[in-house]
Amino acid sequence: MATRKVSVMNPPARSVEELVHASSLIFTGAVVERGTSTVPAVPPNENLVVVRLERALRVDPVLGDLRGKMITVAANTPESLSPDQKAVFFTNSWVHGRGIAVREVEHVDIREEASVATAVAQLPQIHLGDRLKRAELVVDAEVVRISPVERKSFERNAALWAAAELKVDRALQGKPSESTMVYFPTSDHPLWARAPRFKERQRGIFILHAPSPNATPSETTLEAGSLVALDPADFQPESQLAGMKKLLAALKREGGVQ
Prior knowledge:
With 258 residues, the chain is of the alpha+beta class. It has helices at 16-21, 113-121, 123-134, 217-220, 241-253, and strands at residues 25-34, 48-58, 70-74, 86-96, 100-109, 137-148, 161-173, 180-185, 203-208, 235-236. It has five helices and ten strands, in the order H-E-E-E-E-E-H-H-E-E-E-E-H-E-H. The longest helix has 13 residues, at 241-253.
């Protein structure tokens, strides 16, 4: 997919896709004032800009509805922003609590709002493609048995592994073993909280990975050759089978998967 340069108020310009990937909080808003702060922990200074958020384009759901909220932005070029000026802001979290302060990645003309919204909407599919590219095994399967795994790691954020034995109906990528097992965490620690939780008779598409090269202590306790599912995208409902086949075929044409 070709990327398109955006009209950034201060060069150098980066593509919408690059800015979206670099930012965790993206919103449209109107500048209220410069040099002040709405967050007690952030003292006023000349680099700050207070922005009234009008539309959240990418936001962590835990922040709730931010529409109409005042956001304190540590701007890269505050002199390029004037009161009442509207823009699309690409930012990353800085301070939360009794107000929100963020650090700016970039801001672009408000006329880019639609293209930014489109790029944000494509993120889940891009992320799924990334998970498929890195997968050791992708199978359409059913969980036939869940077994607890002996705990061998006793750090505070241990994964508390369980093992799901899979009955594989078809392999979409890679070669399943005679008995295909996937390890998944059962801990509710934030490190593991978003990982899939499997149960017996659950059917779908399993996107399985080797433990990370930068493995956590919990991952290092797994035997060599183990497969894990740690990302929300690592399990897809069986209704997505046709779409998954098309995506895998497209990735293979691009040389992204074997």
